[in-house]
Design brief:
Layout: E1 3-7, H1 12-23, E2 27-32, H2 38-43, E3 47-50, H3 62-69, E4 74-77, H4 84-101, E5 107-112, E6 124-125, H5 147-155, E7 161-168, E8 170-172, H6 180-191, E9 196-199, E10 206-211, H7 212-229, E11 238-241, E12 244-247, H8 248-258, E13 264-267, H9 278-284, E14 289-290, H10 293-298, H11 312-327
Parallel strand pairs: 1-2, 1-4, 2-3, 4-5, 5-7, 6-14, 7-11, 8-10, 9-13
Antiparallel strand pairs: 10-12
Helix pairs in contact: 1-7, 8-11
Length: about 325
């Protein structure tokens, strides 16, 4: 039984993570910025910590007080904040130093990155490949260009933290909010009886995917194996997590068919640009051919979902139900 704090516990991935942590009988704390998500955490047997991640008005953020006062042993960062080094990593190092001075165990820290850091290439890659540096064979998409350096800062904290990085592929299943980028347009085009659906996507993109439940199980595995795989200079605790490698065009066509489209779906390519949504589209279409052997071998991760396209009849309806629920007041 481990005391775990999940930062971003009420989010798409976070909620599945806390549910699986509780299923494994860990004591789980979860942050949420607003009290509106507090009951969601309580119902899922999570101890809510409401408030900002950052220090405001020279007051210590409540999550830092919780780590100290509740003797939390592992922190999982699902926040996605670009200020993670200053806002989360540095305060944790300070707290862990205090514990080390008292001859207590180091705090564990697991950072959620993503496979997009690898950049596009059809040749196989792995979590041992260098990313985000001049000698890297691939170029990290601009949207997440800051992440490789943050990963290195996480790994460099080994003297004071048992720190690891988990990199999920493009996540699907459940509400699947990230897929609104394409699914929402398909949905509206079908409602408007469009004969042809035209999407800004690479017709040849092959993406690495993972179901949200399998992402959650990877984080649980990392929590439970953290002391074995992290905390030493000669360890490299970065774990790519993906369970299928699929054609983006095929997934989008199958989704349109499931929603009743009988016409053509065409792909106009990935747009250039340095603003949103162009940056998001560029990252979304990242070609990645990776394996997750180290996650399976070292963490004991065992994904259970076979693929997005294979279960699109289920996932399309799940997304549609969530989309309608999220937009019924708009």
């Amino acid at each position: 039984m481990v005391k775990v704090l999940v930062i971003g516990a009420a989010g798409y991935i976070g909620l599945r993570v806390v549910q699986q942590l509780r299923r494994a009988n860990h004591i789980v704390y979860g942050t949420t910025r607003t009290s509106s998500k507090e009951n969601t955490l309580l119902v899922n047997e999570v101890i809510p910590i409401v408030g900002p991640l950052e220090s405001e008005h020279q007051q210590t953020p409540p999550w830092i007080d919780a780590v100290k006062d509740e003797n939390i042993e592992v922190v999982v960062d699902l926040s996605g904040t670009q200020d993670g080094a200053k806002v989360i990593l540095e305060p944790l190092i300070c707290l862990s130093k205090e514990r080390q001075t008292a001859r207590l165990p180091k705090i564990g820290f697991i950072y959620c990155s993503g496979l997009w850091v690898h950049g596009s290439d059809v040749t196989p890659t792995s979590d041992l490949a260098s990313v985000g540096i001049e000698t890297s064979a691939r170029r990290t998409p601009p949207l997440v260009a800051w992440r490789p350096e943050h990963e290195r800062q996480v790994l460099a904290s080994y003297e004071h933290l048992n720190a690891a990085v988990v990199r999920p592929g493009l996540v699907y299943g459940g509400s699947g909010d990230i897929w609104d980028l394409y699914f929402a347009q398909i949905y509206h085009d079908i409602k408007n009886k469009a004969a042809t659906i035209s999407l800004k996507a690479d017709p040849n993109a092959a993406i690495s995917l993972v179901h949200v439940d399998d992402v959650a199980s990877a984080f649980v595995a990392a929590v439970e194996k953290l002391e074995l795989v992290a905390g030493q200079k000669d360890q490299y605790p970065i774990f790519d997590v993906a369970s299928s490698h699929e054609s983006l065009a095929f997934v989008l066509r199958r989704f349109a068919e499931e929603l009743g489209h009988q016409g053509k779906v065409e792909f106009t390519g990935v747009p250039e640009g340095s603003s949103f949504p162009e940056l998001f589209i560029q990252a979304f279409n990242t070609n990645i051919n990776n394996g997750s052997t180290r996650a399976k071998t070292l963490l004991g991760w065992s994904p259970t979902k076979t693929g997005f396209a294979a279960g699109i009849n289920i996932y399309a309806k799940a997304w549609e139900g969530s989309f309608l629920e999220r937009n019924k007041t708009k």
